[in-house]
Amino acid sequence: MAIFIEAYTASKKEKDGFKEVTSQISEEDFNNGFCIDKNRMEYLKIYYEKDKPIAFGMMDRYRETGVGSILNISLGIIPGHRGQGLGRKIGQDCINFGMKDKKTVRIYWGAHKDNYKSINLAKSLGFVYLSEDNKGYVCYMIDKTKSN
Ligand SMILES: CC(C)(COP(=O)(O)OP(=O)(O)OC[C@H]1O[C@@H](n2cnc3c(N)ncnc32)[C@H](O)[C@@H]1OP(=O)(O)O)[C@@H](O)C(=O)NCCC(=O)NCCS
C-alpha cells in the first residue's frame, strides 16, 4: 500500500490527519478500492471527532480521452465510526465540490465489486455503474452532462 500526499497543497494538520486515519484502515479495506495518485490529488478533507481525525474524503483528477476532466473519489472512515452516516456526508461533500467545479464532466467512484457497503453508498448517492476491470474493480459515475 502506498499513500502519497506531497503534491497536494494540504496543511500540516491535514497531512497528519490523513496519515493518522489511513494508518487505522486495514490492508483489506484498501484492497477494496483505494487508488491514490500523488500527482493528481485535488481535494482532501479530514473529518474530526473533537480533535481526533476519524475520516477523510479525497479526489484525484485525470483526463479521460474523449470524455474530459474527471474527479475520482476515495473515502475512508476508521473502524468504530462507520455505519453512523459519516460516509454519506463525506460522499455528498465530494459530490458538491465536483458539481460546482466547471471543468469536471464526470465524478467517479471506484471500489472492489465485493465492497458492497461502498457500492450501496455510491448508488444511493446517485452514481450509476460504468465499468469493471479484470481485477474485479468496478467504477460508478455521475455524468454531469446528463444531470440537471
Ligand atoms: C464504505 C464506507 C465509507 C461507508 O461509510 P459509513 O459511514 O459506514 O456509511 P454510512 O453510515 O454513511 O452509510 C451510508 C450507506 O452506505 C451503505 N452501507 C454502510 N454500511 C453498510 C452495511 N454494513 N451493509 C450494507 N450497506 C452499508 C448503505 O447504503 C448506507 O445507507 P443507509 O444507511 O441508508 O442504508 C466505510 O465502511 C469505510 O470507510 N470503509 C472502508 C474504506 C472503503 O471501503 N472506502 C470506499 C472505497 S473508496
Structural class: alpha+beta
Query: What's the CATH C level?
Result: Alpha Beta
Shape descriptor: globular
Bound molecules: coenzyme A
The CATH topology is Aminopeptidase
For the record, the count of structural domains works out to 1
CATH architecture: 3-Layer(aba) Sandwich
Over all CA atoms, what is the radius of gyration? 15 Å
Query: Low-confidence parts lasting 5 or more residues at pLDDT below 50?
Result: none
- Report the mean per-residue pLDDT as an integer: 88
Would you give an account of this structure?
- This protein is an alpha+beta fold and 148 residues long.
- The chain has a single domain, classed as Aminopeptidase (3-Layer(aba) Sandwich), CATH 3.40.630.
- It has four helices and six strands.
- A six-stranded mixed β-sheet has the order 1-2-3-4-6-5.
- A hairpin with a 4-residue loop joins strand 5 and strand 6.
- It starts with 11 loop residues before the first helix and ends in a 5-residue tail after the last strand.
- The site of coenzyme A has 23 residues, from strand 3, helix 3 and helix 4.
- The site of coenzyme A (COA) has 23 residues, from strand 3, helix 3 and helix 4.
